Amino acid sequence: DPLGPHLLSGWVSSPAGSDLPNLELMCATLIAFALGKRFVTVPRMGLVEFGADRKAKNRKGAALLFVVGLLGGALYIVAVTNIEVLGWRPGRGSLTTLGLSLVILVIFGGIAYWMDFPRMMLLGLAFAAAFAGSRLLDSHITFLIAGALVLGWGLVLLVSFIRRYPLPRRAGSHERE
């Protein structure tokens, strides 16, 4: 799961006092995910071509998640910049944190539904809990804890996948005896 490093990036950027390590870790995660798909998943499982019904479902889901993501992003910007909007100024209070955590859960829940990937909801719970904990406790240690759990879980699943689906042998290759 590429979300483990993303959760860890929230913890890494805090002591640095900069978002640059966060951005670097996110970019490295995306590159690692793409390389893993290319060199681990595709050689073992092949590529999937979805039918018209699944493609339509994915387009609708992507549109809905885009709108929810925009709303969540706007709420997040308002929360972290502490600007006043329509006479309301969010603080580190639980109402703003609860709202942003719910947005996170809706996004992950939507992804879980549209991708038929129930485990994504558990990842969303970890992300929402890490976010809420960091805001309410004023500490990013919750990102470290959630990130380590998700990364560890992802590594266990990766090892299990590689063991369950070894690389197919190429025609003409012979094992040494």
Summarize, please:
This protein is mainly α. Helices cover 76% and strands 0% of the residues.
Reconstruct the topology from this structure.
Layout: H1 3-16, H2 20-45, H3 52-81, H4 94-114, H5 119-137, H6 141-164
Write up what this structure looks like.
The structure is a single chain. The chain has 177 residues and is mostly helical. 76% of the residues lie in helices and 0% in strands. The protein contains six helices and no strands.
Which word captures the global form? globular
Beta-strand residue percentage: under 5%
* DSSP, total strands: 0
What is the tally of helical segments?
A: 6
Helical residue percent? over 70%
SSE order, as H and E?
Answer: HHHHHH
Q: State the secondary-structure class.
A: mainly alpha
Low-confidence stretches: none
Average pLDDT, rounded to a whole number, is 75
Query: What oligomeric state best describes the polypeptide chains here?
Result: single chain
Rg, Cα atoms, Å: 20 Å
Q: Distance N terminus to C terminus?
A: 37 Å
Q: Give a short account of the largest sheet.
A: none
Any descriptors?
single chain; mainly alpha; globular
